């Protein structure tokens, strides 16, 4: 039977010192310094304990946390994935440490605007935390909070609202309704509703402006109804309201440009007007995909 590798007393003291220095630097937001200390601790652990060890996995996870705080998302993802591989071998999938690593991977994916991937990581972390820590637990509430944020970013207001309500129930059970975290959750819920009202209101207003009189009132009321339905029940309705709003905003901008052109240089040829309106409508409709591609292009550049 193979003995479990252990540290000698001097090695334990060295790692403890490096950990203390790394945590102190991390507390002061000195992430480059913290990373250096934790990397030195990792080197000692790998040399004495081997790669497949719980302590090694923990340090890899901490390095992922530090890299995430630095904004080095690709580095954070690499550390988290390496920690996950080790942790799956050492502890198995149904373990709180595994859930913490999955939560970290979700944070990285969300920061990279990869929301479906982030949702998958957070959902896996939530299942583990509920099974190992219970429903009424701080870490469980943290993961539900992130699921709510991802749902809001994906314009799925019903799912976001439900997640915030679940989070509020946990925060209230743990610390009471007057605790700061419960108050912040209530604020997030009200902010979600306010954002839905504002987006729907602007869309209805621009619809009213753009359409001729016989249609504008009915169309604007239809937009308001669609926005309410999207907030309460059907996220696809919200997505279409937001798409329509982006198209109308783009067309409004094009209209102002054409008006300025006409004042400065005279009448704009009909063909050019139609082309500019078509381009504006396309950019407004396709903006979420264009924005995602631009973000991925920026994030993929070497740092």
UniProtKB/TrEMBL annotation:
SMART domains tied to this protein: TPR
Pfam families membership: TPR_10, TPR_12
Residue ranges crossing the lipid bilayer per the database entry: 213-231, 243-264, 270-290
SUPFAM superfamilies: TPR-like
Keywords: Membrane, Repeat, TPR repeat, Transmembrane, Transmembrane helix
The protein's name in its UniProt record: Tetratricopeptide repeat protein
Source organism of the structure: Candidatus Viridilinea halotolerans
